Amino acid sequence: MDFFFVEYRDPIFGLIVFFGVLLLIAVLSYVWGIFSIKDEKHSIEKFVKKFENSSGLSEKHKKMLLELDVDTNSLSVLALTFAKSGDFDKAISVYLVAIDKSPSKKQREFLLVALGKIYLKAGFLKKASEVFLESLKLSPRNSEALRYLGVTYEKLRMYENSLETLDALNEQGADTKAEVAYIKALIITSQTSKFNEKAAQILSLSEDFPLLKRMVLEQFIRHNEPLDSLTMPRLDECIDIVFRLDNLLNLKNADFKELLGAKGLSNDEPKDFNLALLKAANDRSLGATLSFSYFCTECKTSYPLFFYRCPSCARLGSVKILTHVTKDTSEEDMPF
């Protein structure tokens, strides 16, 4: 019997078989690559058509951008220019053209995240979530896409989905304690349990996100609850609220005592420049008061209303309350 298998023990025959297998694998990989590229191209075309809209660029301009030798980086700059001027429809159209032209998976991933941000900023939340999910198909560990997807779910009030994205980020080593605490606080505020229970639960989360103490203060004021036993936030986190309150709060805290001094309710001399200026103006009966603006320390954007998450860069807890001494117009509206 061994006679029939001598040729199979020949080392040359073994090499031929080995290289034959390698060649077969190479051919199959090549064929698979061709089909996968075609499938990917079809998927991109389908995606672009799905998000095309008539209010963006005209077909003439889209065709021109597709045919011209313009790289995706230049198209990204053009899209950002449209976005900064508030023309989101044109920005979206340019990004879709760039995605259609992008030669590499990495570029498409970047462009999809950028497109998702535009949809998010424009308020098209459902489309934003779809775009971020499309980006995650290309790279499931894309932390930026995950973060913005979580923000989108938060705005859609899909809080459980948002927590899932934060869990994925946490597995990648990101610090998500503050984000998780904030989302859980939003879940608690949306529930129908007793007010005191909700307040206690939110306060317990404030260890991970201290600004939640302000959220509890807002809830107390909305529900006309007594503030005597409330654990107050730092003054720099709530000065725009407590400045409008008539009752004295947190008298043991030096910063709060300075605020009372600025309002003429105590003899404490404020050290803060604006509070000292307010006190000096009111001592001379000039009718001064404080007005407030809200500054994002991350993207350096100012807003007239308070925010927990920056409307521009979506950073949580980046707000800084700025005080301004102005003429008193007797407007006492709360900033929330």
TrEMBL record:
Would you indicate the residue range of the signal peptide?
none
For the keyword Transmembrane helix, the answer is yes
User: From which domain of life does this come?
Assistant: Bacteria
Residue ranges crossing the lipid bilayer per the database entry: 12-35
Q: Which PROSITE patterns match?
A: TPR
Whether Ubl conjugation counts among this entry's keywords is: no
The record, for Pfam families, names:
TPR_16, TPR_7
The TPR repeats are found at: 72-105, 109-142
Q: Which InterPro entries match?
A: TPR-like_helical_dom_sf, TPR_rpt
Mind listing the UniProt keywords for this protein, alphabetically? Answer: Membrane, TPR repeat, Transmembrane, Transmembrane helix
Q: What is this protein called?
A: Tetratricopeptide repeat protein
